[in-house]
Amino acid sequence: MGMRHDMADKSSGLDTPAGGAARRVFVEGYELIGSVGVYEHERRYEQRIVVSLELEVRDSYDGVSDELDGVYDYDHAIAAVRSTVESRHFNLLETLAERIAEACLASADVVTVKVRIAKPDVLIACRAVGIEIFRGRR
Fold first, then answer.
1. What is the pLDDT of residues 81-93, one digit of tens each?
2. What pTM was computed for the model?
3. Pick from 69, 60, 54, 50: which is nearest to 112 by CA?
4. Known catalytic residues?
């Protein structure tokens, strides 16, 4: 069984955390309404923002259990995004992304997180504008 586990890690392309396997968990295109921006109309009116996450989590799943407590629950990441976005006004997407990354990394199971934030309603000529950051446990 150990051989199968090693092969799975190599084929996935994941860098495993020291002493264990890793799994990627993603949240793609989570759309919320938030207060983000430096311009007066952005401070006055909330706007749509779209958040995507990719988390590398410690993988303690035994491959047999079908119980939620055996894996990282992505609802924790979704709740971290929602509570961060709703917490206050952010001038910069960069600041919002950093706070989301910190909230995700507060879980001991999360090793790294990529946060992508897009504002789809900023420019008519673009589908969206935004930023992406990658952060790991320090």
1. 999 999 999 999 9
2. 0.83
3. 54
4. 119
